[in-house]
Amino acid sequence: MRYTISLILASLALAGAARAEAPRVVTDLPAVHALVAQVMGDRGTPELLLDQGANAHSFQLRPSQAAALQAADLVVWVGPEMTPWLDRALRSAGVAPSSAQLRLFDLDVTHRQLFGAAGDGDNDHDHDHDHAAAPAEPAAEAGHDDHDHTGLDPHVWLDPGNARAWLAPIARALAAADPEGAPLYAANAQAAEQALAALDARLAEQLAPLKDRRFVVFHDAYGYFTAHYGLRPAQAVALGDAAMPGAARLADLRADLTAGGFACLLPEAQHDPALVQRLSEDTGVPVGGVLDPSGSTLEPGAGLYAALLQGIADTLLACPAP
Q1: Which site among 60, 142, 199, 202 is 20 to 30 Å from 93 CA-CA?
Q2: 161: β partners
């Protein structure tokens, strides 16, 4: 009898432990992983698909990662506009696009803008964005499946207003998968939002002197960052992620750079800096620090998003005045 009771108690204990377990969460990019990690806190650790140092646009999943997708309780990702490889993997894994996924690009709170959008000088960003100004477009129009930078820009995480707005939906999605953790997720999201608001204000103050500074970046990925902080849009060497610029575009770039007024040329992680270096030698515009828009070279974890934003700001601030 005592043996039977012990078995029953052990079964109840195991059932309780199972209910108390954190949900299995998978994320796509390091920046998204960092935000989810902040909301989960000590309750669990999300899995990051993009390997450190990997290219966010052309990543290929390992079999173990595909298995993790199939076993996930929740997948939090930007959306197929940014990572079509994950969209294909989710379809292959049979993960429904409804309850099992949180697509950040599609959320009503997400500010979306077209490639090449200029900063408006508004640094308040309580995130009362006018979504009517940039209506949703099909994924193919947004430009990452064919690597043609036209239409809506999918680099939405580089607007810290978006990141702040995503924390509460992330907490709600986690709570739906793990109701017992709901109070913790809500509290963590609120704390993370306050910390990010403080960082945002500090960066706005640091970057204010650069409002008229002109930069050249490797590819057109920084429109959300420059628009959010009221900076001039950066000129890009390559308009797409996969194709190198042609001779005509390079000739135009050399002419613009030679005319003067640019602070520096900024190479980018995961891209060969040789072309940027050659443009610098041809025009006399100095080469600055390496930008990393997805955070692929940073140590993954809850602190990565703040480090990503601060790193971009520090790189721009280090460029000498022209």
Answers
A1: 142
A2: none
SS (H, E, C) the chain: CHHHHHHHHHHHHHHHHHHHCCCCEEECCHHHHHHHHHHHHHHCCCEECCCCCCCCCCCCCCHHHHHHHHHCCEEEECCCCCCHHHHHHHHHHCCCCCCCEEEHHHCCCCCCCECCCCCCCCCCCCCCCCHHHCCCCCHHHHCCCCCCCCCECCCHHHCHHHHHHHHHHHHHHHHHHCHHHHHHHHHHHHHHHHHHHHHHHHHHHHHHHHCCCEEEEEECCCHHHHHHCCCCCCEEEECCCCCCCCHHHHHHHHHHHHHCCEEEEECECCCCCHHHHHHHHHHCCCECCCECCCCCCCCCCCCHHHHHHHHHHHHHHCCCCC
Q: What's the pLDDT score for residue 118?
A: 57
Residues of the chain with pLDDT under 50: 1-19, 119-148
CA distance 279 to 257: 8
For the record, the structure tokens of 203 come out as 């960066």
* Surface-to-core class of residue 11, CB atoms within 10 Å of its CB (0-12 exposed, 13-18 middle, 19+ buried): exposed
Give the model's pLDDT for residue 150: 63
pLDDT at 111: 97
Are 279 and 285 in contact by the 8 Å Cβ rule? The answer is: yes
Class of domain 210-317: alpha beta
210-317 shares the fold of 16-203: yes
C-alpha 221/C-alpha 159 separation (Å) is: 11
pLDDT computed for residue 1 by the predictor? 45
User: What is the spatial distance between Cα 240 and Cα 221, in angstroms, rounded to a whole number?
Assistant: 9
Q: Do 239 and 245 meet the contact criterion of CB atoms below 8 Å apart?
A: yes
Question: What residue spans define the domains of the chain?
Answer: 16-203, 210-317
CATH-assigned architecture of domain 16-203? 3-Layer(aba) Sandwich (3.40)
